[in-house]
From TrEMBL, chain A:
<feature type="transmembrane region" description="Helical">
    <location>
        <begin position="393"/>
        <end position="415"/>
    </location>
</feature>
<dbReference type="InterPro" id="IPR000175">
    <property type="entry name" value="Na/ntran_symport"/>
</dbReference>
<keyword id="KW-0812">Transmembrane</keyword>
<feature type="transmembrane region" description="Helical">
    <location>
        <begin position="82"/>
        <end position="102"/>
    </location>
</feature>
<keyword id="KW-0813">Transport</keyword>
<keyword id="KW-0769">Symport</keyword>
<dbReference type="InterPro" id="IPR002438">
    <property type="entry name" value="Neutral_aa_SLC6"/>
</dbReference>
<feature type="transmembrane region" description="Helical">
    <location>
        <begin position="12"/>
        <end position="31"/>
    </location>
</feature>
<keyword id="KW-0472">Membrane</keyword>
TrEMBL record, chain B:
<dbReference type="GO" id="GO:0005886">
    <property type="term" value="C:plasma membrane"/>
</dbReference>
<dbReference type="GO" id="GO:0070062">
    <property type="term" value="C:extracellular exosome"/>
</dbReference>
<dbReference type="InterPro" id="IPR031588">
    <property type="entry name" value="Collectrin_dom"/>
</dbReference>
<dbReference type="GO" id="GO:0051957">
    <property type="term" value="P:positive regulation of amino acid transport"/>
</dbReference>
<keyword id="KW-0597">Phosphoprotein</keyword>
<keyword id="KW-0325">Glycoprotein</keyword>
<keyword id="KW-0732">Signal</keyword>
<keyword id="KW-1003">Cell membrane</keyword>
<dbReference type="InterPro" id="IPR042944">
    <property type="entry name" value="Collectrin"/>
</dbReference>
Amino acid sequence: MEKSRPLWDNPLQFVFACISYAVGLGNVWRFPYLCQMYGGGGFLIPYFVMLIVEGMPLLYLELAVGQRMRRGSIGAWRTISPYLCGVGVASVVVSFFLSMYYNVINAWAFWYLFHSFQDPLPWASCPLNSNRTGYEAECERTSPTQYFWYRRTLNIAPSLEASGGLQWEQALCLTLAWLVVYLCILRGTESTGKVVYVTASLPYCVLIIYLIRGLTLHGAVNGLIYMFTPKLEQLANPKAWISAATQIFFSLGLGFGSLIAFASYNEPSNNCERHAIVVSLINSATSIFASIVTFSIYGFKATFNYESCINKVILLLTNAFDLEEGSLTADNLSAVQAHLAAAHPHAYAELLPQLKNCSLEAELDTAVQGTGLAFIVYSEAIKNMEVSQLYSVLYFSMLLMLGIGSMLGNTAAILTPLTDSKFIATHLPKEVISGLVCLINCVIGLTFTMEAGNYWFDIFNDYAATLSLLLIVLVETIAVCYAYGIRRFEKDLHTMIGHKPSWYWKIMWAFASPLLIISLFIFYITDYILTGTLSYVPCDDKVSFYPKFLRK
Amino acid sequence: ILFLLIMLLSPCVLLHAIMCRVSCSYGYAWDANEEYLFKAMVAFAMRRYSSKSTTQISNVLLCNVTDRVSFWFVVTDSTKNVTTVPGSEVEEAVRMNRNRINSAFLLNDKTLQFLKISSTLSPPVEPSTPVWLIVFGVVLCLTVAGIVFLIVSGIQRKNKESSETENLEEKCEVTVTIENGIPCETLDLKAGHINGVYAADDERFTSL
């Protein structure tokens, strides 16, 4: 008797699994950056256009393929055409690359989470130097949060070649991260189905708490105004449209095979059209929601730094000229400065190099993305809030949930084809296969915990998946529309959900999306060729102490 | 004598004077009483440091008091012909008793500043086991317990299933032999037979 395929307990689990997979760290740390770079509120226009042209159709396509073929990526594409088996294998390989380096982020989130149970937070102030007369030199030059990230967490080496040793603390956190992932995927859909209830909903609870907290912070409004003021001239910049298309594409996680894997555990009569629309809309809404939170935090941090800068200038002037305490405030600062410059030109000129020009715009202008945003900027904002331990715990738990949700999808993409293959499934039980995959990934992932590990991480993050995914999805779309035949696909969908797809879907699948992907592909290839040698940003002692995580 | 007069009039010109400053955000009310307290504290510090009980409040001289609340002060030694105590000694005395002096004014190292006297920063209290290891240990144990539980229950379930199917097969064999009085081996269960009684009735059913 053949074992029936495991199924989701109810369609809600499937939707939650897709949301948990699609809503990941990119929604929190990449979208706000893009919004800031490409015209604030105006960026939403290319974003929604791309959502309609490529996001929803491609998502629906993958879910339908998975649900119809009821197999993981390799099996599904083999069913469509025996020559397309390679597409499935490519998906599995890319998922494997991703899972290798992605779980390191969860390890970092665990590290910060565990350190949030201290009072004061370890990144709140610089540590003392060896003879206790002042603060550690490295820390003084930058800031406590940067120091904690680059020195205490990563212990970063000056360059890729100087590998350095394994950081045992990070290695432990990575092992824990893989054990947690193993716990969630151990029983297949049975265990994953329960876990996604938590990983999908907890981030929203935390985001709502942060939204309320963020909006009530002093100076949050500055950030929001700065973000939402649309700079519509950016719409003429082709990079804005390309970034929107790329963001939609990677945010939904197309091409990895995870969506096919999840959909293959569906009842054949599941309405995947409705689910595709729901998932893509929720994903985009979450991006916007997260960027509101991020910008209120930015505004708070920028205002805080601006006011500290002003206070330092006031203190310096008050001490130097022995003015009465309280006579110099932020309002009369420029007037008094002018008066002092005129009255005591000599002394004022001596003091001038130390007086920094404080500007709120300059503070807001620092556009940050990636791990720099998540671990440096946010922790800097958190340490200045009251009850910072609570907010810190909430925030890093949210990062952890987002990361684990995406990992569940990635591992499903690898494991589903493996467990579908009769050869492997007869020899090894599901638990052993999952265990082996987790173990291999963990061992390879230890590379990222070395001192030069962050450089490897950057290289993987920037170059491992981009072109491959574009190619995979392009072949997928062309295969379904032209090799399998759009009429046949229509009939399959009619059998599954009860009605044929409308002309919107068919036009997008057959013409719009492939054209868009081809143009993205050409753009990226020309970009790589024009850039010349691909590079990473090292942390050079002589040039700039820490790698510039600010990318304009 | 003129020299002594000049020295008495402007002691702050001397090298041994130390500058002190109150830098308070809410504006510290500095008056003659506070000055008196300050002189008393400095005298107290000198007494503790040098174990001489000869330093009096009158030995501490303040000058150049500004509205900012900053001033210079010197400590004179009445036993040695009105000479001033070397600055280094005063510095050491103040550094040793910094905490007491701060507490008298309810200020701290940042708000009551003695220039030239750098404060030794106190390191934060570090517990013997880092806190993060404890939390890590807890989460690790929970995760491993969960994994072991799931694996063990999975194995148990598989054993129960296989033993159940074995029992079912056994029961089948027992009952089959006496089912309807006809031994089951004669009824070819796998092949299936068309029951002739029902085949004829097909025509009576209305076609869809």
